[in-house]
Amino acid sequence: MAALTEEGTGKFVKIKEGDLDMQLHYQEAGSGEVVIMLHGTGPGAGGWSNWYRNFEPFVEAGYRVILLDCPGFNKSDPLVTAKPRNLINAWAVKGLMDALGIEKAHLVGNSLGGASALMFALEYPDRLDKMVLMGAGGGGFSLFTPQPQEGVRSMFDVLRNPGDEQLFRKWLANAFIYDSSKLTEELILGRFASMQKNLHHCENFMKSVELNPKRLADLSPRFGDVKAETLIVWGRDDRALSFDLGLKMLWGIPKADMVIFGQCGHWAQWEHAEKFNRIALEFLAR
Question: Which fold has domain 6-285?
Answer without folding.
Answer: Rossmann fold (3.40.50)
